[in-house]
Amino acid sequence: MSAAQRILVLNGPNLDRLDLRDSNIYGSMNFQELSAFITAAADELGFAAEVRQSNSEVEIITWLHEAADAQIPVIFNPAAFTHYSYAIRDAAAMLRAPLIEVHLSNPLSREEFRHTSVISGVAKGTIAGFGPNSYKLAILAMKELI
Ligand code: DQA
Predict the structure, then answer these.
(1) CATH number of domain containing 20
(2) Does 1 score more than 60 pLDDT?
(3) What pLDDT does residue 4 have?
(4) Is 135 a catalytic residue?
């Protein structure tokens, strides 16, 4: 049997504190539960997911470089970096396997500053607004892509 395809599931700032954020917007899972949900969903579709979270732009850029060098597909919730980090966008543009952007909430139905994503333009597509299922749908889409 061949080894499961690796995917990186990267998460940006404040997602480690989901339990303290507005559950009407982000749902009731804490980050540990979300990670387990993502890993199980990936496993079902034959992926070995590595779920990572960082509050540091530098660390996320380093992970994107790692994914680019190893040609690993990436599912990415850039959190607030979505809306303004050109450095993360430039790193994401160098990926050599598909990138899918995800959000728990639907940023387009929220404050105006969330309506801009500087990441979308370098992603294959974006899935937003379905809570943890946004990640599950992204894994399904990734399966179709590769
Ligand atoms: C988010 C949406 C962003 O606007 C916000 O800054 C986040 C989480 C989401 O998953 O809905 O931290 O990316």
Answers:
(1) 3.40.50.9100
(2) no
(3) 84
(4) no
Strand partners, 76: 10, 101
> 2: pLDDT confidence band, cut at 50, 70 and 90?
low
Give the C-alpha separation, 100 to 15, whole Å: 17
The pLDDT tens digits of the residues spanning 55-77 come to 999 999 999 999 999 999 999 99
Number of domains observed in the structure of the chain = 1
- Distance from Cα 17 to the centre of ligand 1, integer Å: 12
From the list 65, 84, 86, 103, the catalytic residue is: 103
Q: Which of 19, 75, 105 to mutate to test the pocket of ligand 1 (most atoms within 8 A of CB)?
A: 105
Q: Are strands 47-53 and 5-11 parallel, antiparallel or unpaired?
A: parallel
Q: Quote the tokens at residue 11.
A: 């998460």
Could you tell me the residue range of the domain that residue 52 belongs to? 5-145
